[in-house]
């Protein structure tokens, strides 16, 4: 079991360097915020289109399949189960749907009438409205439940995968440099922008350490070949409580080591000990990405708004 390879959440892909890696982190940040906000008050067509765009962007960027294959597969499987479960779940209205016409009116409507009286309008086709889309046995799917299922499943995929794709193609130092650059106007209000970005940098660097500690503890449990049936529920809970305690101790030790390393190097405050990792400049790729972002929002306003 290798968590760092099978589940690379929040890790940066150093090699190979794709065209998505070379984009300005500020431009990628605006793209990420667009993905995280455009599904609000959007119709289902746009929500599904966001999922398709994310998958196509991954394929066009030529990111190695070993990086995204298993993770995207698990995420798509999760979203599919959410879609199925919510589709057959109660829609929350708590009503029994009946046809709009009473029985007597249905009988009257069933009588033969002249063809001229029931002729449809030119260019229109009669359509029968059905609120209950599927109803057999205990399985019942309505329009509202299917609509809710599509909304939730696409939202889960968009939130998780767009954020992971951003972290996968953007170094932590680039992320913090972009956020610090965008937050510069807040310094007029005496907001500690540099301290905030430093905290963000350390937290992003700490994610791989957390995964590594979890991986080591899980391997240590597996190598001991514990008989969980003999332990019972109370014994199993006690073992995992010891593992959680050990994990917390290791993480606190790592944090203390990181703090000592910063103090030894003379780090007193972010404003006095700053290192410029990246020189943020917009290139041709960035301007092209900005143009596509404008088109992206134009399409969203044109076809994606929920009526």
UniProtKB/TrEMBL annotation:
Bilayer topology: Multi-pass membrane protein
Superkingdom in the source lineage: Bacteria
A cellular component annotation (GO) from this entry: plasma membrane
InterPro entries: ABC/ECF_trnsptr_transmembrane
Keywords: Membrane, Transmembrane, Transmembrane helix
Entry annotated with the keyword Transmembrane helix: yes
Main location (coarse class): membrane
CDD domains: EcfT
One Pfam family hit: CbiQ
Cellular localization per UniProt: Membrane
Bilayer-spanning residue ranges: 29-60, 72-89, 148-168, 287-303
Name this polypeptide is given: Cobalt transporter
Lineage start: Bacteria, Bacillati, Cyanobacteriota, Cyanophyceae, Nostocales
């Amino acid at each position: 079991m290798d968590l760092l390879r099978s589940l690379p959440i929040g890790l940066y892909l150093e090699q190979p360097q794709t065209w998505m890696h070379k984009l300005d982190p500020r431009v990628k940040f605006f793209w990420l915020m667009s993905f995280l906000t455009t599904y609000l008050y959007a119709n289902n067509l746009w929500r599904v289109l966001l999922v398709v765009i994310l998958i196509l962007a991954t394929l066009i960027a030529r990111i190695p399949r070993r990086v995204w294959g298993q993770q995207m597969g698990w995420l798509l499987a999760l979203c599919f189960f959410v879609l199925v479960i919510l589709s057959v779940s109660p829609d929350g209205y708590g009503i029994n749907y009946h046809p709009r016409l009473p029985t007597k009116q249905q009988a009257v409507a069933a009588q033969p009438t002249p063809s001229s009286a029931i002729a449809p309008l030119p260019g229109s086709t009669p359509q029968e409205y059905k609120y209950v889309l599927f109803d057999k046995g205990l399985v019942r799917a309505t329009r509202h439940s299917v609509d809710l299922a599509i909304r939730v499943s696409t939202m889960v995929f968009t939130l998780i995968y767009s954020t992971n794709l951003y972290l996968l193609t953007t170094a932590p130092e680039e992320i913090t440099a972009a956020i610090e650059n965008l937050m510069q106007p807040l310094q007029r209000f005496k907001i500690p922008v540099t301290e905030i970005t430093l905290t963000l940098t350390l937290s992003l660097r700490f994610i791989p350490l957390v995964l590594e500690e979890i991986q080591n503890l899980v391997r240590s449990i597996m190598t001991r070949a514990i008989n969980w049936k003999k332990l019972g529920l109370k014994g199993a809970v006690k073992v995992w409580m010891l593992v959680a305690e050990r994990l917390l101790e290791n993480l606190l030790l790592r944090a203390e080591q990181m703090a000592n390393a910063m103090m030894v190097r003379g780090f007193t405050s972010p404003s006095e000990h700053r290192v410029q990792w990246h020189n943020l400049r917009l290139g041709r790729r960035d301007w092209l990405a900005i143009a596509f972002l404008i088109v992206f929002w134009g399409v969203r306003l044109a076809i994606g708004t929920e009526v």
